[in-house]
Amino acid sequence: MVKFLRRTWKKYSKLGKGRKKKQVWRKPTGRDNKMREKRKGYPTTVKIGYKKGLGTIKGKKPIRINSVNDLKKINKNQIAIIERIGKKKKIEIAKIAKDMKIEVYNLNAEGY
Is the distance from CB of 26 to CB of 43 less than 8 angstroms? Predict the structure, then answer.
């Protein structure tokens, strides 16, 4: 995934130097703008096709898990992400995920 930034964001503090929210994309304009001309060595501009693979983790669709029942509904081409739950439920989910050989993205199953 490419992060698109404004051409001169490093120069000015108002354009986002040290301010992540201000680092937004603006289309390069101007007669002699090298980025607009897509010259070699300059940052890339936004184009169709850069969004491919967005919304996947390791090529699998992420599914949010709140309970053990949610974990049992997962297919092979999906990956589990645990929501905000307590330690008791996390231990249960870790055991079942290890038995069913389901990959949990934000949980180390061997640690529980």
Answer: no
Provide CB contacts within 8 A for 77, sequence distance 6+.
Answer: 60, 61
Helices (H), 11-111: 68-72, 87-100
pLDDT digit string (tens) for 9-68? 778 888 777 888 888 888 999 999 999 999 999 888 888 877 767 788 888 999 999 999
Q: Report the helix count and the strand count for the chain, using DSSP H and E.
A: 2, 2
Q: What pLDDT is attached to residue 39?
A: 94
In terms of C-beta distances under 8 Å and separation of at least 24 residues, what long-range contacts does 96-103 make, across chains too? 96/68, 96/71, 96/72, 97/71, 100/71, 100/72, 102/71, 102/74, 103/58, 103/60, 103/79
Output the pTM of the full model. 0.55
